Amino acid sequence: MDWKREIGIAHLVKQKVAQVDTACLWPHPLPEVAASDTDLISLEAHLGVSLDPKLRTFLLHADGWRSFYQSVDVFGLNDFRGGERKHRAEILLETLEDI
């Protein structure tokens, strides 16, 4: 996947949405600055697992993206380590019923 291209397209779409969001219903931030390979190795050691290659490559281009889609965040390294967003995600996952 060409993450530079995909992130650029997503940013352009978010800019257009921000233009029509005259009531400022949602925040429209940029993605976070890319993680380094060293940061990813450290996270994988902390987690005790290797990250999915697609996620790993994304994180090398953007270390997460707050409010990527309205109130939906794309996790960055700090989110995987812990914190409020990880805690909230775990609670939401626990509420899912087996399909």
Automatic annotation (TrEMBL):
SUPFAM superfamilies assigned to the protein according to its UniProt record, in alphabetical order: SMI1/KNR4-like
Protein name per Swiss-Prot or TrEMBL: SMI1/KNR4 family protein
Origin species: Sphingomonas rustica
